Amino acid sequence: MKIRPLSDRLVVKRTQEEEKTKGGIIIPDTAKEKPLEGVVVAVGSGTILKNGKVVPLDVKAGDKVLFGKYTGTEVKVDGEDLVLLREDDVLAVFTK
User: Fold this and answer.
1) Distance, CA of 96 to CA of 92 (rounded, Å)
2) pLDDT at position 85 over 80
């Protein structure tokens, strides 16, 4: 992939949606909602403070994150649908 986010931004690839419900009902594409979780693909260098210092991000590439429904900007890079977010838009990081 050829994208590098700047400052406090990160690139997230959404996880795949379920095609069926637990009861076995197939969900049509028109009724599906976009997942609110994904895997971080790339991160920026960090937040730049007024004094010029750079504070590194808490989120790193490979983390599985939860983000808001209406946050971020959707982009398509090399045929892949990605979401460009600020670190503030990340609500939680899944732990193992």
Assistant:
1) 13
2) yes
> What are the extents of the domains in the chain?
1-15+35-96
CA distances, 24 to each of 20, 52, 74 (Å) = 6, 55, 30
What are the backbone dihedrals phi and psi of residue 42, each rounded to the nearest 5 degrees, phi first?
-150, 150
Query: Contact 71/32 with Cβ under 8 angstroms?
Result: no
For the stretch 44-66, pLDDT in tens is 999 888 998 999 999 999 999 99
**9, 86 in Cβ contact below 8 A?**
yes
CATH architecture entry for 1-15+35-96: Roll (2.30)
**Beta carbons within 10 angstroms of residue 50's beta carbon:** 5
Q: For 64-80, how does the pLDDT look when each residue is reduced to its tens digit (9 = 90+)?
A: 999 988 888 999 988 88
